[in-house]
Amino acid sequence: MIRALGRRALSLLLALIAASVVIFVMLQAVPGDPAAFMLGMNASEDAVAALRAELGLEGPLVVRYLAWISGMLGGDFGTSYTYRVPVAELVSERIVVSAPLAVMALVLSTVIAIPVGLIAAARRGGVADWGIMGGTQLGIAVPNFWFAMILVLVFAVKLRWVSAGGFPGWDAGLWPGVRALLLPAIALALPQASILARVLRSALLDTLDQDYIRTARAKGLSRRATVVRHALRNAMIPVLTILGLQFSFLLAGAIIIENVFFLPGLGRLIFQGITQRDLIVVQSVTMLLVFAVILVTFLVDLAYTFADPRLRRR
Amino acid sequence: MSALAPCPSLLAIDGLSVAIQGTDLLREVSFDIAPGEVMGLVGESGSGKSLTALAIMGLLPDSSDMRGAVRLEGADLTVLPERALCEMRGRDIGMIFQEPMTALNPVHTIGAQVAETVRLHRRASRAEARAIARDRLDRVGLSHIGLDRYPHELSGGQRQRVCIALAIALRPKLLIADEPTTALDVTTQTQILDLLRDLVRDEGMALLLITHDLGVVAGMADRVAVMKSGQIVESDTTEALFRTMRHPYTRALLAASRPAARVAPSTVGAPVLEAHDVARHYGATRAVDGVSFTLHAGESLGLVGESGCGKSTLTRVLLGLEPADAGRVSLLGTPVGPEMPTAARAAQQVVFQDPYGSFNPRWRVADLVAEPFHLTGRPADAEAKVIAALEAVGLAAGDARKYPHAFSGGQRQRIAIARALITRPKVLILDEAVSALDVRVRAQVLDVLSDLQKRLGLSYVFISHDLSVVRAITDRVMVMQSGRIVEEGVTNEVFFNPQAAYTAALINAAPVIPEAWLDGHVGWSWA
User: Fold this and answer.
1) Residue A106 to residue B443: CA distance in whole angstroms
2) How many beta-carbon pairs below 8 A join chains A and B?
3) Which of A3, A127, A137, B455 is buried most, with the most CB atoms less than 10 Å from its CB?
4) Domain with B481 in it: what CATH number?
5) Tell me, what's the pLDDT at B4?
6) Would an 8 Å CB–CB cutoff place B342 in contact with chain A?
7) How many structural domains compose chain B?
8) Where does the ABC transporter domain start and stop, copy by copy (chain B) (predicted)?
9) Cβ proximity of A202 and A88 under 8 Å
């Protein structure tokens, strides 16, 4: 099992290297010169060339790539062209918004999906099942930014329970911070919860047809106890896969949602970086997100071996 | 073995009828089981045996409509609320099922699964429940197996013992065993049946033994009920039932379960499939270890042995799906191996135990049967050939347009044989090809195989754990143990006078009906 995990870690490392090359090369190909953009329309060619040299945009591709990678390994993500501060500093300011948002959304989607999936599977073919299948279909179909705007209209504009956007900062206290993230987290979580609930339902239905469920019932377990004690853990194995895959969608979704709610998170940072040709910010933050996704994939693999003892031997 | 005594019955089933979605599946089933008695319930699949067991447990599907009464010590279970039924299940009635490989939850340890029965019904601490689980696992002969082992780490026989341990954890008054040994090897079957017999004797438990195997009930049951199409057609004490055999269905079951031995070895031709000192290793495991044999044209060669003996590995090597690590296999003079030309493969085809698993459900029978043409190229008269193959196995030309789900298990096995015949092979490898079939269907498929062999001059390698079938269809037999052939010879001679101790053990392990009970009923007998 240790060897298998070692192999897995190695393949993820290779994926990380491949991703870094792709990100680097693609951003070289993006039109628009950051130096020209920063100096404005009237800048002289000499000034632009000087700035390019200062920003480290000159020199062979390979050298610049290696400089970027070795810098990142040492915690140096480069310096933002527009803000003129280290990217690491920008990231650390923003991550305190984005990370709690992602975790809240992930927890919310799981907390919603598990009971919903359980009820749908237990009431297979019944009214509740039909309702849940219809509702989750809607949840998947509706884009989350549109749903976010509806949430703002209802809870911020009409009911005035929360503010429509912005983030007070954690200095203002835990509750104001959580309250500001609540609507965005719900907007992010709902489509994910819909997918997760449907996957859980079908995994549970497959599991409930298994022979060991009949054994459990013959022991004297009630229908409900059978589902919770014997079916759920077996059904969690496919659900874990989806949960891992969803994490990357959550990060991508956050870019849009953070803009809808004016949250100073990593998503907005990337968005601003793109519009201002602050390529080093885009490059480093994207790499960071890739790293996060790969790390989550690895954790999901670890979780498999805990969920399914049959995988531990290999 | 007191029977028929009008002692107060433990379980009384009275006029039990079950219909699911308007189809009557059980009709007026009635029988009693006395405390400590072993009741055998015999019949083919679909006769309603398992449904009767589920009805007793109150575990019928929601859509079913049940009438009649199921009384346990006088109390009618059919009127009990679900909560009371949950308390009854596992405490008063335990149940084990046919498929030990899937009957246990793969993500829980065996100790936890046995202890769960205890903790469900009794106020017991975790440690107490584990102690009881340990005791019960010891009782079923698993004292060397730790509580923290997972089901996938155990063999089929060991898993069935775990299932028994969790069913008897609370010493129920009645144990229902639904085909408990059907999925097991003959020697493992004997051990499990011995265990059940001991439990009945030592714990004073009654046993409802559901099986299709008349030999099993003959050795186990005090009384037997024979079921057909949801009705009990005959019921008596075991010996009386076998001696009289009043109902024609019972006699038909018996006849089909004892296929006549092959009369005389058919004339054999030139060698078609040869193996010379074949070996296949997986790491340090010698799965196949120095196997040699020659199969001649028109000959049937049996291969018997228990699971894990190397039969399946040898089959894959013979088919050229895996390379031999040593030795060689040749088919009509062509070396067999993974790299052999596809056209050469057409001379040898295989039929497996479960044809349904190897049929694409969205293909019509015509396409399924024509599939092996990819080895030879599709001939212009493919359709006519498909129809000829279907008719050769006793199906109709019109069946070509249907989908596999429209057929019964026996018909599907005929389709699989038709598919194997389509390339006009010389050799058919039949890997447990009739093991999943009911005795009467099995007899029909065996007839089809004999007939095809006579007409087409086919050679068969017949791999099976079922000795009566091997005896009925093969000229020569090889007995395999731990990768080696321990005995080989003319089938009748091997069966009458086994030389290897292992062969004798296999033959003795097969459950039989005492000959004295059958005087005048049947022509063929073991001794």
Assistant:
1) 59
2) 71
3) A137
4) 3.40.50.300
5) 46
6) no
7) 1
8) 11-254, 273-507
9) no
B107–A233 CB contact, under 8 Å: yes
Residues 6 or more apart from B500 whose CB is under 8 A from it?
Answer: B479, B481, B486, B487
Helices marked H in B58-125? 82-88, 110-121
Nearest CA-CA distance, residue A214 and chain B, Å? 8
Write the pLDDT tens digit of every residue in A82-133: 888 898 899 888 888 888 998 899 999 999 999 999 999 888 888 989 999 9
pTM comes to 0.81
Residue B204 or A54, more confident? B204
Bridge partners (DSSP) of residue B238 are: none
* Amino acid type, B277: D
Placement of tokens 């033959």 in the chain? B507
**Contact call for residues B98 and B180 (beta carbons, < 8 A):** yes
Class of domain A89-311 (CATH, top level): mainly alpha
* Domain contains B456: yes
Q: Which of B257, B243, B250 is nearest to B227 (CA)?
A: B250
With beta carbons under 8 A apart, name residues in chain B contacting A222: 82-83, 86
Cross-chain residue pair B59–A219, CB shorter than 8 Å: no
Distance of alpha carbon B395 from alpha carbon B69, whole angstroms: 43
Tokens linked to B481: 């143990």
What pLDDT is attached to residue B256? 81
Q: Which of B59, B106, B121 sits opposite A218 (nearest CB)?
A: B59
Give every residue of chain B whose pLDDT is below 70, as ranges: 1-7, 261-267, 355-356, 520-527
| Identity of the residue in B102, B107, B163 whose CB atom sits nearest the CB atom of A309 | B107
Determine contact, residues B62/A186, Cβ cutoff 8 Å: no
- Would you kindly state where each structural domain of chain A is located, as residue ranges? 1-74, 89-311
SS3 B300: strand
A228 touches chain B (CB under 8 A): no
Residues 6+ apart with CB under 8 A from B99: A211, B183
**In B, which residues are within 8 Å of A211 by CB distance?**
97, 99, 102-103
Measure CA B104 to chain center: 19
Please tell me if residue B167 touches chain A, with a CB cutoff of 8 Å: yes
Question: What is A178-193 written as a DSSP string?
Answer: HHHHHHHHHHHHHHHH
- pLDDT of res. B263: 60
Note whether residue B478 is domain-resident. Answer: yes
Closest Cα partner for A285 from A185, A38, A293, A35? A293
Residues in chain B: 527
Distance (Å) of CA A139 to CA A134, A193, B495? 9, 8, 68
Q: Give CA torsion, residues A166, A172, A173, A178, to 10 deg.
A: 0
**Cα torsion angle, A285, A287, A291, A293, sign:** positive
What per-residue confidence (pLDDT) applies to B526? 40
Tally Cβ neighbours within 10 Å of residue B128: 14
Give the start-end residues of each E strand in B432-483. Answer: 459-463, 476-481
| pLDDT at position A277 | 81
Residue A210 backbone zone (phi > 0: left; psi -120 to 50: alpha; other: beta): beta
Measured between alpha carbons, how far is A276 from A271 in angstroms, rounded to an integer?
9
Integer Cα distance of A184 and B202 in angstroms: 66
Residue type, A26: M
Residue of A nearest to B164 (CA): A215
User: Bridge-partner residues for B489, per DSSP?
Assistant: B477
CB contact under 8 A, B90 and A219: yes
Specify if B243 maps to a domain: no
Q: Do the domain assignments include residue B472?
A: yes
C-beta atoms of A211 and B99 within 8 A? yes
Instruction: Annotate B334-393 with three-state secondary structure.
Output: EECCCCCCHHHHCCEEEECCCHHHHCCCCCCHHHHHHCCHHHHCCCCCHHHHHHHHHHHC
Q: Is the dihedral angle over the CA atoms A120, A122, A127, A130 positive or is it negative?
A: positive
Query: Angle at the Cα of A133 (from A153 to A308), degrees rounded to 5?
Result: 110
